């Protein structure tokens, strides 16, 4: 029997919590919810509406079979499931869904739900949980390390918290751990070191790049030496079982969106088991890219005191994630089981790989010599650098004006630079555009680039 993992004590995390998190009090009502389940207790506790007043009497839906896409699988919520879905429920997630996710995290990342100092909590998408985690960890003026380029959706969170964002460059192999080491080893002695690092190790948005195993290990080592928490951001990569010989331990929205040819590297959440102790990773997962973007179900896994701080925020902000969507997802996952769920993620991964290949072929046909790019290994974006004129580092006008005038729109790279510096990069999404329109969209981008080059005096 393997030795139990050593984990950091609860008291260790007090210094990481923001003043707001420290001052937040438990909900006087929700804190007592578990007592309602005590046998023989008559509850006059919560102001829950009586379920007899709800008009819903049954609910059923169908899902496409991952094994045969021509077959629909009917799923009917039981009376108990429907009752659970129509009522207020636990702040951190309904038990049925949490149980499935706990078991899944053990199968995927080898992390046991008991005895390792971590737990998970369900949120209204990973964005909801990232916001609450950052609010729990960051005070105005606190320094934080941010992988650059960075997912545009989290930058306003960091700005709104008045964090001092410290950019750490990333390239085709993920975050540059050597740059991170240099930043930390030369940190001013009279200034508190950063509490957190935000990074997306699989299929980073916007780059689509995946961090190498060597860099992941170096980042974990630096987290231990310099004592910061890794926010393993916005995950759920799509994964192929063919990359693993042991399906019982398969290997972030983008963890299960991995379709590269290299072996899947362990997540930070899994890899930290090789450290002297665990407890420096908060991992965010989402079903948005796997089941439905609108269902708004994500979950966070990490040190229990930090997840508890997130739950306390939820209890005072929005009480909980919608019970009904949780019940629907739980019913689907229980119907499928682990292996069928993995089969579905393999289908999604193959879908986006095919889209990637079609888009890459169009890029090679129309943008060779006009742009530079690395083909992504995960996700749904191309991140490419425009070649307008030597020294020209601004894609803004080309994309916002010329490209739009040509009938195509993408996102200028400035949106992904935390401190807003100019960049020649552009992010193009290939997820929902029809395959037959991909080539035309890239041809229009080429026309916009050629016009910009002509105006700049480049033949």
From TrEMBL:
UniProt keyword annotations, A-Z: Aminotransferase, Pyridoxal phosphate, Transferase
SUPFAM superfamilies with a match to the protein in the record: PLP-dependent transferases
GO terms for biological process, alphabetical: alpha-amino acid metabolic process
Superkingdom field: Eukaryota
Aminotransferase class I/classII large domain segment(s): 87-445
Molecular function GO labels: pyridoxal phosphate binding; transaminase activity
UniProt entry tagged with the keyword Transferase: yes
Cofactor(s) recorded in Swiss-Prot or TrEMBL: pyridoxal 5'-phosphate
Cited PANTHER family: AMINOTRANSFERASE (PTHR42790), KYNURENINE_ALPHA-AMINOADIPATE AMINOTRANSFERASE, MITOCHONDRIAL (PTHR42790:SF19)
UniProt family annotation: Belongs to the class-I pyridoxal-phosphate-dependent aminotransferase family.
Protein name stated in the entry: PLP-dependent transferase
Species assigned in the record: Cylindrobasidium torrendii FP15055 ss-10
Taxonomy of the source species: Eukaryota, Fungi, Dikarya, Basidiomycota, Agaricomycotina
């Amino acid at each position: 029997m393997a030795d139990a993992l050593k984990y950091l004590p609860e008291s260790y995390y007090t210094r990481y919590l923001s003043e707001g998190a420290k001052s937040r009090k438990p909900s006087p009502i929700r804190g007592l919810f578990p007592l309602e389940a005590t046998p023989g207790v008559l509850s006059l506790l919560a102001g829950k509406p009586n379920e007899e007043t709800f008009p819903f009497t049954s609910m059923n839906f169908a899902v496409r079979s991952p094994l045969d896409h021509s077959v629909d699988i009917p799923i009917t919520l039981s009376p108990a499931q429907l009752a659970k879905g129509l009522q207020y429920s636990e702040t951190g997630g309904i038990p049925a869904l949490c149980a499935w996710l706990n078991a899944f995290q053990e199968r995927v990342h080898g992390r046991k739900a008991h005895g390792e100092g971590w737990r998970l909590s369900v949120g209204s998408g990973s964005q909801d949980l990232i916001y609450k985690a950052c609010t729990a960890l960051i005070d105005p003026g606190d320094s934080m390390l941010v992988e650059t380029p960075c997912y545009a959706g989290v930058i306003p969170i960091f700005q709104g918290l008045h964090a001092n964002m410290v950019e750490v460059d990333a390239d085709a192999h993920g975050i540059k751990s050597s740059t991170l080491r240099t930043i930390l080893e030369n940190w001013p002695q009279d200034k508190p070191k950063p509490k957190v690092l935000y990074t997306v190790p699989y299929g980073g948005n916007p780059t689509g790049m995946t961090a190498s195993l060597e860099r992941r290990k170096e980042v974990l080592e630096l987290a231990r030496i310099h004592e910061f928490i890794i926010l393993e951001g916005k995950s759920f990569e799509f994964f192929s079982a063919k990359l693993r010989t042991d399906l019982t331990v398969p290997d972030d929205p983008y963890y299960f969106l991995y379709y590269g040819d290299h072996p899947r590297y362990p997540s930070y959440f899994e890899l930290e088991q090789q450290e002297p102790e665990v407890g420096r990773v908060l991992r965010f997962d989402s079903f948005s890219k796997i089941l439905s973007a609108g269902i708004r179900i994500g979950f966070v896994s990490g040190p229990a005191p930090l997840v508890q701080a997130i739950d306390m925020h939820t209890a005072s902000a929005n009480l909980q994630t919608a019970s009904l969507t949780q019940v629907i997802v739980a019913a689907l996952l229980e119907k499928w089981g682990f292996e069928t769920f993995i089969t579905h993620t393999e289908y999604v991964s193959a879908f986006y790989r095919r889209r990637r290949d079609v888009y890459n072929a169009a890029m090679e046909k129309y943008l060779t010599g006009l742009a530079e790019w690395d083909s992504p290994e995960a996700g749904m974006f191309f991140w490419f650098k425009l070649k307008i004129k030597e020294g020209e580092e601004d894609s803004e006008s080309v994309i916002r004006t010329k490209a739009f005038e040509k009938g195509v729109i993408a996102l200028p790279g400035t949106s992904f630079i935390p401190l807003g510096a100019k960049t020649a990069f552009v992010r193009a999404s290939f997820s929902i555009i029809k395959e037959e329109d991909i080539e035309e969209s890239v041809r229009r981008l080429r026309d916009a680039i050629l016009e910009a080059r002509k105006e700049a005096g480049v033949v």
